[in-house]
Design goal:
By secondary structure, the chain is an alpha/beta fold. It has two domains: about 5-150, Cytidine Deaminase, domain 2, CATH 3.40.140.10; about 155-350, 3-Layer(aba) Sandwich (Dihydrofolate Reductase, subunit A), CATH 3.40.430.10. The longest helix has 16 residues, at about 5-20. It starts with 5 loop residues before the first helix and ends with a strand. Helix content is about 25%, strand content about 25%. Bound molecules: NADP nicotinamide-adenine-dinucleotide phosphate (NAP). The site of NADP nicotinamide-adenine-dinucleotide phosphate has 26 residues, from strand 6, strand 7, helix 8 and helix 11. NADP nicotinamide-adenine-dinucleotide phosphate binds near residues 164, 202, 206 and 301.
Length: about 350
């Protein structure tokens, strides 16, 4: 089916920008993933994305991608970009200057820069210079794309997704033992999410009782970096996170905690020990998004301190009658996804 009108074409181009942006997954560091497309009369003449941290921005890569014979068309071209172009000197000169130098008359932006100092500044600047700028700012996939960047800019912490399964009668588990609540579909959905996050963390009791692997065993997106909280050193050295060949970042107060080539250790003092300091340490390690997979004590601490962005709550059919109560959170239900007998509820923090 061919696009019917200009707005269809605009949507297709923005989705193409987002598709390109995702190629920068895990490579753009604390910079956002961004994609850009340049069209002339609805024909793509250039496209690019932010390839790696410190490299050229998407807009410049798209401009460089325009062939010599198409360069004369830039004066009549349309630039689509998934995030507001930068207007400041960072590692590269401002993208707004590159747009003006290329004399592109029309720009469509899918999301504004969440940095409060920037938010909309480039739009104003380009408009003052005579460029027609259309800001959509309602494209959910564009907003989702920059979620870690937004969390860093706004809250100075990684983007945090809480994940847990609860029984029909409101428990997440039973004291001292591992209980499987969710079904195979839900476990697959969790692994898929793990593949989209750069870090994964669980509470100490969960690490101790469940002895989890915490890897992505579903797709080729790679494993999130495991984060182990072992304040007093009570996780046995034989447990998987302490002994296998996947990378783990360990927070502890124990001096001389055993490290090796797969395990990096950050030692805090007892007075420093808090989830806020730990999240700062996680960010400093270049981990910009974290999935927190229970247990209740860690989840409740983070919920009470508003240290979360989204929650993936699996409501299951099992009944436990007693056990560890599931956390209660207030948020906006985005959608419910049926997964066989389970329901995955995606909730955003208000
Ligand atoms: N249904 C599910 O989705 C699900 C998911 C995960 C776990 N579980 C179950 O939940 C149970 C464990 O849950 P839990 O609530 O007992 O424990 P937890 O949250 O896994 O671990 C709590 C422990 O983590 C340490 N910790 C470090 N920083 C913390 C912080 N900021 N806030 C809270 N705790 C912090 C503390 O141990 P220290 O005093 O040693 O520092 C604390 O006692 C297990 O049975 C597990 O099977 C269920």
């Amino acid at each position: 089916m061919s696009p019917k009108n200009k707005s269809d074409i605009g949507q297709i181009m923005i989705q193409r920008c987002i598709h390109l942006a995702r190629r920068g997954w895990q490579a753009t560091g604390r910079n956002p993933m961004v994609g850009a497309v340049i069209t002339h009369r609805d024909r793509i003449i250039g496209e690019g994305w932010h390839v790696h941290f410190g490299g050229l921005h998407a807009e410049r890569n798209a401009l460089n991608n325009v062939s010599a014979q198409d360069r004369s068309l830039l004066k009549d071209a349309h630039l689509y970009v998934s995030l507001e172009p930068c207007n400041h000197h960072g590692k590269t000169s401002p993208c707004t200057d590159a747009i003006l130098e290329a004399q592109i008359p029309k720009v469509t932006i899918a999301a504004l820069d969440p940095n409060p100092l920037m938010n909309g500044q480039s739009v104003e600047y380009l408009r003052q210079k005579g460029v027609t700028v259309d800001v959509r700012d309602d494209v959910k996939s564009a907003t989702h794309l920059i979620a870690p960047f937004r969390a860093m800019q706004t809250y100075h912490r990684p983007y945090i997704v809480l994940k847990y399964a609860q029984s029909k009668d409101g428990f997440i588990g039973q004291t001292g033992q591992q209980v499987w609540l969710s079904n195979t579909w839900s476990r697959w959905a969790t692994h898929r999410l793990r593949g989209q996050m750069s870090g994964i963390m669980v509470g100490t009791n969960t690490a101790l009782i469940d002895n989890p692997l915490l890897t992505n065993r579903l797709d080729t997106n790679g494993h999130p970096r495991r984060i182990l909280l072992d304040r007093t050193g009570r996780i046995p050295a034989s447990h998987q996170v302490r002994s296998d060949q996947h990378r783990t970042l360990i927070f502890t107060t124990v001096a001389n905690y055993k490290k090796d080539r797969y395990r990096e250790v950050i030692t805090l003092t007892s007075t420093q020990w808090s989830i806020e300091i730990i999240l700062q340490g996680i960010l400093d390690q270049g981990i910009y998004s974290v999935i927190v997979e229970g247990g209740a004590a860690l989840l409740n601490d983070m919920i009470n301190k508003q240290l979360w962005d989204q929650c993936h709550l699996y409501k299951t059919q099992q009944k436990l009658k007693e056990g560890i109560k599931a956390p209660i959170l207030r948020g906006q239900l985005i959608k419910t996804i049926p997964l066989g007998s389970d329901n995955l509820m995606i909730i955003n923090r208000l």
